[in-house]
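Example 108.
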Amino acid sequence: MSKTLINVIDREGATREVEWEPEQSLMETLRDNDFPVLASCGGTVSCATCHVFLEKPVLESLADRSEDELELLEDAEHYNPEASRLSCQVQQCDSLGGINVIIAPEED
Ligand code: FES
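Predicted structure in complex with FE2/S2 (inorganic) cluster:
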């Protein structure tokens, strides 16, 4: 697998292109590129601080959310059923090149 370039839109609305390395989750890429993704549970699906929004066709192209992921997302303040994912649960793959990833607002 090769590196994948994606566009990340931060909480201020600024877009930056970053490289998503093979074998990495989206959360790891965001964290490595200094985006404000706390990921306080380290990717074990128990914090929801890695919440992002993806475009609908992208979301539909991914495997379904697990029950644990869905439960956490439904409890999140900014949950959008048509866009929300926990970025620790999305793995790199070539077909995700060029996607836009929006960092969800911080929970109050
Ligand atoms: S890092 Fe905690 S749920 Fe994703």
